[in-house]
Write a structure and sequence with these properties.
alpha/beta; 5-stranded parallel sheet; about 30% helix; elongated; binds NADP nicotinamide-adenine-dinucleotide phosphate; binds glyoxylic acid
């Protein structure tokens, strides 16, 4: 019984050390050097080539190396019935919530304006130095709720939106298609922390923006899958959005000629909002692997039909 890691574009040195630390007796192999494929019972994946999992006839568990599982589910030859688990980790929540707080602060304290003023040698003390922010978090799961709690603790008004209504102290929550429009009307900062599913593809589009308060600020730290880039740029240019803070893009790395590189009202980061810590992840994966071998319940199992 062995584990295979399939992550063609990742540097795996820290992962190998982390698996050894978690349990040095485990047989962990790195794709494509898999040895006898019938011995593999667990695949640990990030961006595995489509169809590559069909090589393992005794596969019993698939583990995403991150919080998202869209990269797993997009494989049209994903073996049927094999459970899929993902990473839920305090460290991931810590980094993501801090990223969201930073993005909100960037807008709230008008750092975009002061950056431009500095370039132009403008000393503008009279202008209001803060933007009033009512923050809506769309995708109010593990990461969204932690970001919401931190923003609430900083004194912001916070709203949550998810498929099923949540109950979080001091945060007004909305759910489902019926709740979306009312949710959008409450806010002037929209944070997207949705999973990438067929339902959420292109959800950050001009129809959604038209339903929001004029001048809402957009923060997307989830997936580029949610964004219609041209609609975002158009909405900023016509004032529907006041700007955007984006960590993720439909194509990554972001193509050199993409218009957001030059757009003064779009702040970008290269998909770094929250990076999996191999030590924490390997520990969880090994725990789930042993649970699978012992026939015990798995932690952080996703629902294939729901897509997250
Ligand atoms: P999660 O715990 O599964 O939360 C997802 C939330 O979205 C849930 O509240 C869910 O509602 C809601 N949701 C799903 N589909 C919806 C829809 N169609 N309409 C409204 N709400 C919907 O996931 P998470 O751990 O917070 O992670 C969220 C995403 O962040 C991941 O999927 C990943 O893509 C992204 N991520 C990005 C980075 C980065 O570095 N940029 C790092 C980690 C994760 P219910 O609770 O009602 O089911
Ligand atoms: C990162 O994007 C993740 O899904 O963990």
């Amino acid at each position: 019984m062995s584990i295979v890691i399939i992550a063609p574009n990742k540097d795996l040195s820290r992962w190998i050390t982390a698996f050894n630390k978690a349990d040095e007796s485990l047989d962990v192999r790195i794709w494509p050097e898999t040895g006898d494929q019938s011995e593999i019972t667990c695949a640990v994946v990030w961006g595995h080539p489509a169809g590559s999992l069909t090589a393992f006839p005794n596969l019993k568990l698939i583990c995403s190396m991150g919080a998202g599982v869209d990269h797993v589910l997009k494989d049209p030859e994903l073996p049927d019935g094999v459970p899929i688990v993902r990473i839920v980790d305090e460290g991931l929540s810590f980094s993501m919530s801090n990223y969201v707080v930073s993005a909100v602060m960037y807008h709230h304290r008008r750092f975009d304006k002061y950056l431009a003023d500095k370039k132009a040698h403008i000393w503008d003390q009279p202008s209001p130095p803060e933007v009033d922010c009512r923050i809506g978090i769309m995708g109010f799961g593990v990461l969204g709720q932690e970001a919401g709690r931190k923003l609430k603790a900083l004194g912001f008004e916070v709203f949550g939106y998810s498929n099923s209504r949540k109950s979080v102290d001091g945060i007004k929550c909305f759910a489902g298609e019926d709740g979306l429009s009312t949710f959008l009307k409450q806010i002037n900062v929209l944070v997207c922390l949705l999973p990438a599913t067929p339902e959420t593809k292109g959800i950050l589009n001009r129809r959604l923006f038209a339903d929001m308060n004029r001048g809402t600020y957009l923060i997307n730290a989830a997936r580029g899958h949610h964004q219609v880039a041209n609609d975002i740029i158009e909405a900023i240019d016509n004032g529907m959005l006041s700007g955007a803070f984006l960590d993720v893009f439909e194509n990554e790395p972001l193509p050199k000629d993409h218009p957001v590189w030059e757009h003064p009202k779009v702040f970008i980061t290269p998909h770094i909002a929250s990076i999996t810590n191999p030590d924490a992840a390997a520990y969880q994966i090994v725990a789930n692997y042993k649970a699978m071998l012992a026939g015990q319940p798995l932690k952080n199992k996703i629902d294939r039909d729901r897509g997250y």
